[in-house]
Write a structure and sequence with these properties.
By secondary structure, this protein is an all-alpha fold. Helices cover 65% and strands 0% of the residues.
Length: 205
């Protein structure tokens, strides 16, 4: 069973680019910065990779029409004077700090991502409008879903479990137990093994 767990959980710290097309040299270059920021602010590092992939495709000099800059498309008002948003380490640290704050504020990954995309003031207004959907449909389809798809893809690259792989792992372990000792295992599961033994003792007496 331990071998199955190790296989499902994975141990790769950086995948082989030949087997993961997403793992480009640009990703590999900032991966240590992503891991450091994720550990500092307690955010899933693959979620950060998903955000960066969707926001900038790992282009550190990118500037949006709204003025957002760098890898995580951070707005200048989130930076202190003198902080360079085109510096990958600075940009990732500030973007991760903001995302961590939003995750703590809303307690929900999808709402936090919507707020990262649209602004927390916008999302706070949506929270007070019970007559409309909390997250606009266009934000879900154009931002949240792509980020989460990228996150799942990076998890697979790193050999980490996604929800489907965990389900398959559980099914595999249960199947192995059933094949090994089906009647005894099922009896224990249903709580009938002890009653069966009691009946046998009664007959022998």
């Amino acid at each position: 069973m331990s071998a199955l767990l190790l296989l499902a959980l994975g141990t790769a710290d950086a995948p082989d680019p030949r087997t993961c097309r997403l793992w480009t040299p640009a990703v590999a270059e900032v991966w240590p910065l992503v891991k450091a920021a994720a550990a500092r602010y307690q955010v899933d590092d693959t979620l950060l990779l998903g955000v960066i992939q969707h926001e900038s495709s790992f282009k550190p000099q990118l500037v949006s029409r709204a003025g957002a800059r760098g890898l995580m498309q951070v707005m200048p008002f989130h930076a202190e004077a003198g902080e360079n948003l085109f510096d990958p380490a600075t940009n990732i640290a500030l973007g991760t700090r903001l995302l961590a704050w939003l995750l703590n504020r809303y307690g929900d990954t999808k709402i936090a991502l919507a707020a990262y995309n649209r602004g927390h003031g916008y999302m706070d207004g949506r929270l007070n409008q019970v007559a409309m959907p909390l997250i606009p449909r266009e934000t879900t389809s154009a931002y949240i879903e792509p980020v989460l798809r990228y996150q799942s893809a990076f998890k697979r690259c790193l050999g980490r479990p996604t929800l489907p792989s965990v389900a398959w792992l559980v099914a595999g372990v249960l199947g192995a137990l059933w094949l090994a000792k089906p009647r005894r295992w099922l009896g224990k599961l249903l709580g009938t093994e002890k009653r069966r033994r009691g009946r046998r003792r009664g007959k022998s007496a």
